[in-house]
Task: structure prediction
Amino acid sequence: EDRAEAATAAARALINQDGLHALIGPQLSRHAIPVSVVAEDAGIPMISPMASNPTVTAGKRWVFRLAASDDAQGRALARTAAEDLGARRAAILFDIANPYSRGLADLFRTSFTEAGGQVVAVETYTTDQSISFEPQMRKIRDARPDVLLLPNSTSAVTIQLRTARALGVRAMFLGSDTWDTRIIGAVPEAESAYVTHQWNPSIPSSAGRAFVDAYVRRYGETPKATAALTYDAFQLLWAAVRRAEGLDLERLREGIAGTERHDGASGIVGFRGSGEPVRSVFVSRLDDGGLRLHRVVEPAPR
Result:
């Protein structure tokens, strides 16, 4: 059930009834944010594979994330727009009720402005209004942006892309890891869009290749980022269990927090004194329905 209340109720049930030692998930920021409070209050280690909003881990000892944060994605998209695409004018359309969309939009706006660009239009909507985006797109068209950021759900983005082009928006599209590129790649209007994502099966890595090969043998299809990061979350937990030599909760937490470098299926990830991951952000271009790696934005050195 896609409700924050249902996620927190499930987490409380696991902790109270099943004697939980660790929690992997939830995947989405809108669920992981409230569940992180439950895990923190209970003193249970929690690793969210795909949640990217910094609120999930902010001020918490027991909660960790593996996905590149909204901050990192926003900065990576701003750098790509300003440095690689030569954009000077940007527009943003985002779901104001979604913490993920709102956070990434704010970080992009700040970073793009710091890079010398100008955000000429900021339009919002709420999920229950996601049938038509014509009023927002008309305002965006009239602002004449070079790029248009759409950090929204796949179902909304498919409509937004078509609406934008139908109304004469000429900007290059920018997307984030909420885009299911298998679906959006089939939308002709998405061609040449630039998108941040957490993982690409073609990125050279021995651990990544081994995971992809095993997954394809087992399931007969190429895995998505969710599968790779969830696999890495479990690998990090098992490594922490081995270091803790048992299931003492504080030692488990220390084992996860002390991971400086884990070479996993989704690349290299580690922690520096908090639950925020230190990892690369991948920016790719949608090309003939597929993803072509454009650049890797590395984390700032320690």
Observations:
- The first strand starts at residue 23 and ends at 24.
- Residues 225-244 form the longest helix (20 residues).
- The two ends are 40 Å apart (CA to CA).
- The mean pLDDT is 91.
